[in-house]
Amino acid sequence: MPVHMVKCASDLDISVPPHFQLISVSSLSLTSDCVHKSVKGKVVHKGPVVSCRQTDHLIKAVIQDKDTQSSDPSQHTSINVIIFGTLAKDFSQAVNQGDIVLLSGFTISKSPTEQTDRLHPCLLEMSSTDACVYVYSSNVFVSSGPAVASSESRYTYLPLNELKPNRIVNVYGVVTFFKHPFPTKGTDYCSTLKITDQSNAKVCCTIFSEKLEDHPKIFRIGDIVRLHRVKTQMFNGSITLLTTLGWSVITFDGMIDSPIEPRTSSKTFHFGEADKCAVEALRQWAASQLLANEPTVPLSSVQPRMFFDLTCQLLAKASMDTRCVLLKVWDGTACAHPLLNVTVAPDALEGDASSSQERENMIANILVYDNHVEGASKLKPGVFLRLYNLHAVTQRAPEQSADCASLLSFHLHSGTSYGKGLCVLPSESPELQPLKRRLESYAAVAHEDEVNDATLLDVWCTPPEALGEAVNKDFYTVRTCGHGLQQVSLAHVKKSTAPVVCHVRAKVKSYQPQNLYQCLKLFCPQCTKLVEVPNDEVIARVFEDALRVSQPCSEHWAVTSTVDCISMHMSGEMVLSNTHMQLLFLQGVTLDEMCMISTAHSNMVPVRSDDGRMRLLDFSAPFLFSKDKRYYGCKQCSRSTFVEPEVSEVETWDEYNVAKALGVQLMQYALLMKFELEDETGTLEAFIWEDAERFFHVTAADASACQDSQDKVQITMDRLHPPGSSMAERPWLDLCLSAYTVEENGKTQVCYQITNTEARGNLYTPQ
User: Fold this and answer.
1) Residue 753 confidence (pLDDT)
2) Which among 164, 64, 49, 50 has a CA at the least distance from the CA of 117?
3) Is 460 helix (H, G, I), strand (E, B) or coil?
């Protein structure tokens, strides 16, 4: 085995023959002699094993100098290593990120990724039979400085004043300045931030990524950021941090006592107790240093010509031209100065921001320019925004005379200087609570003024965040079971021993799938298999495959209820009549043609020919088309091969009789969703399946083909979980929960299902 494990770090140096010379990564070049040389370093990145034709397997890793240090900042101490063949698989199994390795038997070539990963301009290739890797497994790489190391992980976090140039490091810091992502001249977006920590060192970070969602989600000065695998380098005499291969970032709210919830787009990341302690320590220190940002300015405090940050809710938007977007927003306060009302054509305005004359100064018109237009164009009315470095500009409306007072408008100018930009705030953000209280307070006043200003009330009821639970007061659920059970908490349910039935009162915190068409499944009542409904692309390929392999068939049938057979010519023009009582077999058609024919005829069965006999298509496609509905067979339980219908005593051809005649196990449509429920005691995940049709008042079969049924499910979910809403605004639901156990991979798991419950009341949000 070309990968050798050693018990201690000192054994690495004596593992290779004594005539081998240890050289540093920084001293490598294209002209370096590799014979009888070895390189030692820490594995800071390990990729997956990749299959390729030339060498069977390869793996890419990055190692960083451990024992050697360079005083020249221009030198590179981290280098890519490409390992080939059997050695690649052995390396993947034996070596972990953070281990110390010593490499021998390598060759040196030019790195093609130098400009993107900013590592050493060379790379090491290990493909010869002499290539060897010696490994010392080290859980934590401890630096010479007082680094923060977690016993739970392999990560070490260096204080910012301990950073040395040309190293790959992990750091924590408090944000003192930031710029939102902006497009570079290439394909990446770039964002910058400055951070500090208890060492009082201040470091600038530059983030490059093609995806906007990968950039740090920073909402204000004082937020906390954790950066993994970033490179240190010298710039203008100061240490800076730059993203490199395998970097990652998560951010946290910097407010004391707010939930420590990571903001990240990564699906997997490590975050343990030691990390929570690090975040809490930085919060306490930042508060003592008064690093937290000043609160944003409400509209009521805005003065002409000032620059300020604004937290608000978007009511409407409109595109003015390719370089400008209009945003109409409010924050529940009225500006002390008259505001300019930018008018646009009604059909150009997305959302509704009209109001009475008395409340006109509560709607701010914000003109967003140039590089901010892309982000502003994607916003949806109802979301909460934070706008940075907004400029209050005085100007006159076109119809105003010169002696009239100037009106106030707001401009988000182009560029990113002084942190100019905008971002969407999560609805659950603690920073939104003051704003939400103001909006709710205004909504209450609007209700009191209903008699005098009914039109205004209707308009301002539009943003879902402004009304709280008032939107859902006429929507509720009822338990339809006969259980005389006392209502219990979710925490009590989780402690109960399954099987058990409980009554609870909870809200929907989240649900899956988010794309509701994915909640429609196919269920086999015989083998209990549950599968996804194939999409049209998959079905079309089945029809295309049948067209390629089919030969002219001597048996083209239209079977009636009296078992009469008539000949059908499939290659030319087709005339079908009196087919409402017939079972029709069609060969040589595409999916589009089948859909077109089935809109006017019931019970159409697509077939292909095999040795002159008819055979059903692969069960990835429907075996039966009936008007706008499609029916599927179970691949495992169906016994049909060649089409030999058993049609004796069949009076009508419905889907059940067709399946029976063809030897097909009919699959049933089912609705399946998973709710994350929450009450004062905790959360619990529960499925809704067996009683989903009763809950939504639709059948799964209708939902597969009927737009009205699909809309009913969507509207119900919008009432249970209004888009962009907070937990306080969602309705309380009375539910019957059933706890049961399932066996999976030899393990017993407790699951929960919503049963005997129906959605009631007005499903449509009042306007």
Assistant:
1) 94
2) 64
3) helix
C-alpha angle 408-410-413 in degrees, rounded to nearest 5: 140
pLDDT for 402:
55
Q: Which amino acid is at 585?
A: F
Environment class of 305 (CB within 10 Å of its CB; exposed 0-12, middle 13-18, buried 19+) = exposed
> Does residue 457 have a pLDDT over 50?
no
Are 668 and 659 in contact, with CB atoms under 8 Å apart?
no
Joined tokens for residue 263: 């903001």
Q: Are the CB atoms for 742 and 729 separated by under 8 Å?
A: no
- Decide: 471 and 439 in contact? Cβ < 8 Å: no
Looking at the predicted structure, is the pLDDT value of residue 99 above 80?
yes
Band of pLDDT at residue 74, cut at 50, 70 and 90: low
- SS3 string, 467-533, reads CHHHHHCCEEEEECCCCCCCECCHHHHHHCCCCEEEEEEEEEEEEECCCHHHHEEEECCCCCCEEEC
For residue 625, how many other CB atoms are within 10 A of its CB?
A: 24
DSSP H helix total and E strand total for the chain: 14, 40
pLDDT digits (tens, 9 = 90+) for 224-279: 999 998 999 998 888 999 988 778 899 998 887 777 888 887 766 778 888 888 88
Separation between Cα atoms, residue 56 and residue 193, nearest integer Å:
43
User: Residue 452: how many CB atoms within 10 A of its CB?
Assistant: 10
Residue 549 above 90 pLDDT? Answer: no
Q: Which residues pair with 174 in a beta bridge?
A: 196, 224
Q: Do residues 292 and 286 touch, judged by C-beta distance below 8 A?
A: yes
Q: Which of 113, 129, 93, 102 is nearest to 22 (CA)?
A: 102
**Rg, Å, the chain Cα set:** 33
Is 634 within 8 Å of 667 (Cβ atoms)? Answer: yes
Partners of 203 in beta bridges: 195
Distances (CA, A) of 531 to 256, 527, 536, 667: 47, 12, 15, 10
Q: What angle (nearest 5°) sits at the alpha carbon of residue 507, between those of residues 681 and 383?
A: 120
Least confident stretch, 26-30, 48-52, 577-581: 577-581
Beta strands in 347-400 (DSSP E): 350-351, 364-369, 384-395
Which of 331-335, 389-393, 553-557, 692-696 is least confident?
553-557
User: What is residue 711's predicted lDDT score, i.e. its pLDDT?
Assistant: 84
Give the residue ranges of DSSP H helices in 183-325.
Answer: 273-288
Buried b (16+ CB within 10 A) or exposed e, 387-417: bbbbbbbeeeeeeeeeeeeebbbbbbbeebe
Task: Write out the H or E segment, with its range, that includes residue 701.
Answer: helix 700-703
Mean pLDDT of 80-106: 87
**How far apart are alpha carbons 337 and 255 in whole angstroms?**
32
The amino acid at residue 326 is: L
Q: What confidence category does residue 144 fall into, taking pLDDT thresholds of 50, 70 and 90?
A: very low
Alpha-carbon 390 to chain mean position: 30
| Structure letter (DSSP) for residue 15 | H
Give yes or no for residue 124 having a pLDDT over 90: yes
DSSP state letters, 45-64: EE---EEETTTEEEEEEEEE
Calpha distance 123→129 (Å, rounded): 18
**Predicted TM-score (pTM) above 0.85:** no
Establish whether the linkage from the previous residue to 499 is cis, with ω within 30° of 0.
yes
pLDDT at 570: 37
Question: Letter for the amino acid at 576?
Answer: L
Burial call 497-519: b when 16+ CB within 10 Å, e when fewer: eeeebbbbbbbbbebeeeebeeb
579 burial type by CB count under 10 A (0-12 exposed, 13-18 middle, 19+ buried): middle
Rounded Cα gap, residues 716 and 722, in angstroms: 9
Rounded to an integer, the average pLDDT of 497-515 is: 90
